[in-house]
Amino acid sequence: MVKGIDLIGKDKNLQNSWIKRIIAYIIDAIIITVAMVIVILLLTAIGTVIIVGSAMSGDVSSILGGVFLGTAIIILGAVFSLLIGVIYWVYFEGKKGTTPGKHFLKLRVAGSTRKMDYGKAFIRNLSKIFGGALTMIIFSGLGTIGAILSIINIFLVLDIIVGFVTEGDPRQRFLDRIAGTTVVRTDIQETFAPAPVPSQTYPPTIPAPSQAYPPAVPKQIETPSVTPAPASVSLSREEAVTVFSKIPGITIKKALSLYNAGFKSFSDLRSASPDKLLSIKGITLTDMKNIKKEIEF
User: Fold this and answer.
1) Which end of the chain is more exposed for a tag (fewer CB within 10 A), N or C?
2) Is the Cβ–Cβ distance between 94 and 122 less than 8 Å?
3) Among candidates 245, 243, 254, which has minimal Cα distance to 278?
4) Rounded to an integer, what distance in angstroms lies between the CA atom of residue 271 and that of residue 257?
5) What is the pLDDT of residues 145-166, one digit of tens each?
6) Residue 175, Cα to own-chain centre: how many angstroms?
7) Distance between CA atoms of 2 and 170, rounded to whole angstroms?
8) Residues sharing a CB contact under 8 Å with residue 219, sequence separation 6 or more, in sequence order
9) What is the distance between the alpha carbons of residues 158 and 145, in angstroms, rounded to a whole number?
10) Residue 277: how many CB atoms within 10 A of its CB?
11) Is 7 exposed, middle or buried (0-12, 13-18, 19+ CB in 10 A)?
12) Main-chain phi, psi angles of 110, to 5 degrees
């Protein structure tokens, strides 16, 4: 199985993808930070006005009530500002599959086992949501160095490093593997560590039309479970659904999705990148592997 660390130094597509992700993360982090500052300043100002106003009333009960309410609002602003990051990452990736930063860089989060949801988005973003805060708490005594480490978010960096040194999709962080997600580019078809295609210098044997009985097939030769039409022949909608649905795991609905996405022959499926297949609604990582296994023979 491939590792990201084996490809990052020589695969330009992979390098460009990670550069785009870093820039997208910076854009999203700036948006979140600005929103947090606005919320904190606004609620702090409201709380301060309430406290000062109650103090000017001269009534002890009013002062105590104003101080309590004003302090509660200020604390609420701090708490809500921390929730902004959670809401931001989970909502945009769980609902839309992309954040404003990722959308700008033409990136999308896709489910490798099933479609994206809020649970997947929450799990894959744990290092972003809590990493910065934990880094700040752990290294708070280091002054400027601690502040720099908090901005860098060492937990997110560790998440990326572990993803690189373990086997799997080189685009995945470690938490992506747990969540069953990956980040794909929408501007190109990415191909990383493609499955090897056996070389074949001669066409497969085709029985003569006049042969009235099936030819004897040696037991050691395995025939594909899907009997394709000629690879380059464009199939009709009904033909494509009938033939594609013979691939293990591909239902009629998924076969129809493949056809609607422009796959109208086995040649189309064979030349499609894994990323392109995974971008089709309903097609999972297992489906993609089954498709490649059945047609690349």
Assistant:
1) N
2) yes
3) 254
4) 17
5) 766 666 677 888 899 999 999 9
6) 10
7) 7
8) none
9) 18
10) 21
11) middle
12) -120, 145
Strand partners, 109: 183
Strand partners of residue 184: 108
Within 10 Å of residue 255's Cβ, how many Cβ atoms? 21
Compute the distance between CA of residue 185 and CA of residue 278 in angstroms, rounded to an integer.
Answer: 11
Gyration radius from the chain CA atoms: 27
Tokens coding 180? 């069953």
Residue 111's H or E segment, with its range, is strand 107-111
Closest CA to 25 of 95, 94, 83, 109: 109
Q: Which domains occur in the chain, in start order?
A: 10-185 (no CATH), 237-295 (1.10.150.20)
pLDDT per residue as tens digits for the range 14-63? 899 999 999 999 999 899 889 988 998 999 999 899 888 888 876 777 78
Strands 107-111 and 181-185: antiparallel
